[in-house]
Design goal:
Elements: H1 15-33, H2 37-46, H3 53-62, H4 67-76, H5 96-101
């Protein structure tokens, strides 16, 4: 059973909120490194992951991708640490990726 927006509570966020978090974490890591979608396609290809920019943009925009894809992207970005906020609200909305990108990229 999935948690839809009708039953979302602060203790039990909706699936859409989790998708927003995943998408914004990936976008934040791209921002930190100044990596475009075109460059990400090239970096993924170096790992043997073939995709094109349009598909990649759509996949990230939806926020519905596998953990394997997220790990491939983070590895291609040379991310060793990611910030997972204590509140999903922090990563929600259009400015969520920018907010996450301003956080430290590694533990203090």
């Amino acid at each position: 059973m999935t948690n839809d927006s009708k039953t979302a509570t602060p203790d039990h966020p909706s699936e859409k909120m989790w998708e927003e978090l995943a998408k914004n974490i990936l976008r934040a890591e791209m921002m930190r490194r100044g990596v475009s979608y075109t460059a990400l396609v090239q970096r993924l290809a170096a790992l043997g992951v073939e995709d094109n920019e349009i598909n990649l943009r759509n996949k990230v925009s939806r926020g519905r991708f596998t953990a394997v894809f997220l790990m491939q992207c983070l590895r291609s970005l040379d991310a060793e640490w990611i910030h997972i906020p204590s509140s999903l609200d922090e990563a929600a909305g259009k400015s969520g990726a920018q907010a996450l990108a301003r956080k430290p990229s590694s533990p203090a």
